[in-house]
Each structure stands twice: as structure tokens, then as C-alpha cells.
């Protein structure tokens, strides 16, 4: 039995790892490579998460002009830089450690292309929006690396992209309640991170080797996605002699019907048909797509 009930430190019911997926490289966009974990055939949807891609792009490869509707994309740069450019003239470059939290809502058409020499790497997470938020105005939240809240304690460093950890809060507003934490554990470190009971949560390992859920479980290394079972938080250990880096992401499930057609994610087939119609006819949020092309001049089939 746990020693203390309802203590602010320690977990009563640590979550266990219920499934593990190794994300292998595949081609996406134009010449880009992604390791897709959520969103592949075996794991279509982990409510509210639609896609998790660890991407790698080297010019001239990239993700030229393409639309989105009905969800959010969260791009977190790990190395290099990506320039995004949208049909309303919103343009910017995000570099290592920066985050772009884009709420596509009723519609965005944009390009995401490498902005530097060499290989650009990062994570892109697609978070579904509830039916009441699918058609909201698009919105961007951009946070540069230096403004991302960080906390350090007992060999644990956390960058708080969304939510709260080690007493530090992120300024990001999440329409679908979400936490997104980037942890680095020194050798020997032990983490206990609360996660709301009713949320779905996963770990994706970026570097090193970690033990998750139970102290006796086998070590997990980079490019593995771990789905967590029920409980009130995550326990993780770094029993190796190198540093361990992983993200912990959690979100409140929407529990709504889902119909997806590529970059359009709605609740019903009628809404998808309407979306294709809107995109083809430049209506209901896609008006500005009629005359817009990014600097690349290319477009992405989907
Ligand atoms: C997309 C194919 C795509 N993962 N990771 C079809 F590749 C994309 C797309 C991305 C993407 C972009 C970045 Cl910067 C990082 C990504 C897929 O843009 F949206 C559709 N529909
Ligand atoms: Fe996109």
C-alpha cells in the first residue's frame, strides 16, 4: 500500500505501459521522412491525439502547400529550423527548442519548409478539437525556446510546453485540455509526474534509455511510443549512465465520433464532404486559398 494517501508528492496509482510501438522511418510530404507513431495503421487514433511524427527534412524536401481543418498542429523543433507560411500572410521561422501551436480550426492552408542547411528535426503532434471548436477562427501561439518555462530538480529537467510540472506552468492555451512535457533525466534520476486520471497519456523517447511504469520493466530507447494505462501519474527512472530524454503528453479524450480525410478531421461524413467542397470552392474559411501560393510554389497531395 502507498504510504500516504492524497499526498502532493508521490503517486497512489502509477500508470503502467500498456502498449509499445517502435516508429520506423517512412516518406511523407515531398522528400521528407517521418517516424509516425500515432496515426499509423495499427494506432489510428489515441483520443484526442491524431498524429505524432518525429520528422526529418533536408532542403529541398519539405511540406509544401496543404490544408488543415478541425484540429491543432503542435510543432516542436529539436534541431535546425522550419519556416511556415500561410494563406493569410502569417509567416515565421521556428528554430531549435521553439514551439508553434497552431489551431487550424475552420481552415489553414500553409507550407512548412526547411529554413537552414542540413537536416531539420522535430516533432509534430496533431490534437483533435471538439465539435464545438472545429470551426473556430485559426490561431497561432508561438513560443521561442528562451521563453519556454523550465524547471530543474533532483537530476530532472523539464521544459513545460503545455500544462504544469515541478511547480512550473506553461502560458500555452490548450483548447482540448492537454499537457506536453519535455523531460531530461540524468543518470540515477527518478521522476514522479502527476497526470489527471481521466486523461489519455503517452511517452515518446527521444534519447537514451528509460524505465517506465514499473521499476523492474525493461529499458526503452529512442523512437518508441509508450501508451500508458490508467492511474494518477507516470513514474520513470534513468538507470543508465547516459542522459534520458523523452516527452510526456496527455490529453482529455473527446469521446466523439471521428471521420478523417487526410488533413481534414470532422465528426461526420457530411462534414467531411462539406469540407472538401469548401476547399475546392474556396468557401467557409478557405477563401484566401484561391489566389495564394507559398514561395515554394508547390503543393502537397493528400
Ligand atoms: C500533411 C502529408 C503530410 N507530418 N511533420 C499530408 F506530410 C502533411 C504534413 C506533415 C508534417 C509537417 C511537419 Cl512541419 C512536420 C509533419 C506531416 O504537413 F499535413 C498532410 N495532409
Ligand atoms: Fe501542416
Give structural notes.
Keywords: Iron, Metal-binding, Nucleus. With 302 residues, this protein is mainly beta. It has one domain: Jelly Rolls (Sandwich), CATH 2.60.120. 4% of the residues lie in helices and 48% in strands. It has 1 helix and 26 strands. It is globular. It starts with 16 loop residues before the first strand and ends in a 21-residue tail after the last helix. It binds ligand FJE and fe (iii) ion. Ligand FJE binds next to strand 4 and strand 5.
Outline the low-pLDDT stretches.
1-7
Which ligands accompany this protein?
ligand FJE, fe (iii) ion
Structural class: mainly beta
Domains (count): 1
- What's the SSE pattern? EEEEEEEEEEEEEEEEEEEEEEEEEEH
Q: β content, as a range? A: over 45%
Number of strands: 26
Tell me the name of the CATH homologous superfamily. Jelly Rolls
Query: If you compute it from the alpha carbons, what radius of gyration comes out, rounded to the nearest whole angstrom?
Result: 19 Å
Strands of the widest sheet, in order across it, are 1-22-19-24-17-14-13
Keywords: Iron, Metal-binding, Nucleus
Binding site for Fe cation: 66, 68, 110, 112
Cofactor: Fe cation
Family: Belongs to the pirin family.
Give short descriptive properties of this protein.
302 residues, mainly beta, Jelly Rolls, seven-stranded antiparallel β-sheet, 1 helix, 26 strands, 4% helix, globular, disordered N terminus, binds ligand FJE, binds fe (iii) ion
Amino acid at each position: 500500500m502507498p504510504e500516504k494517501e492524497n499526498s502532493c508528492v508521490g503517486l497512489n496509482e502509477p500508470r503502467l505501459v500498456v502498449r509499445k510501438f517502435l516508429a520506423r522511418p517512412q516518406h511523407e510530404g515531398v522528400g521528407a521522412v517521418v517516424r509516425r507513431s500515432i496515426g499509423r495503421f495499427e494506432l489510428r487514433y489515441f483520443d484526442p491525439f491524431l498524429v505524432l511524427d518525429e520528422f526529418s527534412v533536408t532542403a529541398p524536401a519539405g511540406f509544401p502547400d496543404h490544408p488543415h481543418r478541425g484540429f491543432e498542429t503542435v510543432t516542436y523543433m529539436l534541431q535546425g529550423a522550419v519556416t511556415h507560411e500561410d494563406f493569410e500572410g502569417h509567416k515565421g521561422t521556428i528554430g531549435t527548442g521553439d514551439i508553434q501551436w497552431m489551431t487550424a480550426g475552420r481552415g489553414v492552408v500553409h507550407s512548412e519548409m526547411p529554413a537552414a542547411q542540413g537536416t531539420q528535426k522535430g516533432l509534430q503532434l496533431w490534437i483533435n478539437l471538439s465539435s464545438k471548436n472545429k470551426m473556430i477562427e485559426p490561431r497561432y501561439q508561438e513560443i521561442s525556446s528562451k521563453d519556454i518555462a523550465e524547471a530543474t530538480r533532483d537530476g530532472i529537467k523539464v521544459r513545460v510546453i503545455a500544462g504544469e510540472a515541478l511547480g512550473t506552468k506553461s502560458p500555452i492555451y490548450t483548447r482540448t485540455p492537454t499537457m506536453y512535457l519535455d523531460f531530461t533525466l540524468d543518470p540515477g534520476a527518478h521522476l514522479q509526474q502527476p497526470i489527471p486520471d481521466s486523461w489519455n497519456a503517452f511517452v515518446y523517447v527521444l534519447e537514451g534509455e528509460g524505465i517506465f511504469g514499473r521499476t523492474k520493466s525493461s529499458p526503452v530507447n529512442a523512437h518508441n511510443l509508450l501508451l500508458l494505462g490508467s492511474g494518477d501519474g507516470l513514474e520513470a527512472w534513468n538507470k543508465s549512465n547516459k542522459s534520458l530524454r523523452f516527452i510526456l503528453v496527455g490529453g482529455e479524450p473527446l469521446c466523439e465520433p471521428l471521420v478523417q480525410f487526410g488533413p481534414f478531421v470532422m465528426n461526420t461524413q457530411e462534414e467531411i464532404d462539406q469540407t472538401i467542397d469548401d476547399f475546392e470552392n474556396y468557401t467557409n474559411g478557405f477563401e484566401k486559398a484561391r489566389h495564394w501560393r507559398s514561395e515554394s510554389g508547390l503543393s502537397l497531395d493528400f
